[in-house]
Amino acid sequence: MNNEFNTPLLSDAQAKQTTETEKRRISSQALFGSQREILITHSDDEYRLRITNNGKLILTK
Questions:
Q1: Exposed (0-12), middle (13-18) or buried (19+): which is 1, by Cβ within 10 Å?
Q2: For residues 15 and 3, which has the higher predicted lDDT (pLDDT)?
Q3: How far is CA 53 from the centre of its chain?
Q4: How many angstroms separate the CA atoms of 24 and 11, rounded?
Q5: Do residues 32 and 57 make contact, with C-beta atoms less than 8 angstroms apart?
Q6: Average pLDDT for the chain
Q7: What's the pLDDT at 38?
Q8: Per-residue b/e over 20-59, b at no fewer than 16 CB within 10 Å?
C-alpha cells in the first residue's frame, strides 16, 4: 500500500487484468491532499497540475 496516497498499488499482473472499462480511478483529493498544485514527472518531462479558483484542473508542461 502506498502510504502517501493511501491507495493500493497494482502489480504488473494485476494491471494487465483490468479491462478497458475498468480504468484506474484516483480522486483529486487523493492526489492533491491540502495542496492546490502538484508536479508530475513523465519520462524526462515535468508537468504541473493545478486546481483553479473555479475548481477546474489545468495541466501544463
A1: exposed
A2: 15
A3: 20
A4: 13
A5: no
A6: 83
A7: 97
A8: eeeeeeeeeeeeeeeeeeeeeeeeeeeeebebeeeeeeee
Backbone angles phi, psi at 2, to 5 degrees: -85, 110
HSE of 33 in the Cβ direction (CA atoms, 13 Å)?
7
Residue 61 grid coordinates? 508542461
Q: Which are the contacts of 13, defined by CB distance < 8 A and separation ≥ 6?
A: none
Q: How many residues are present in the chain?
A: 61
- Distance, CA of 50 to CA of 13 (rounded, Å): 32
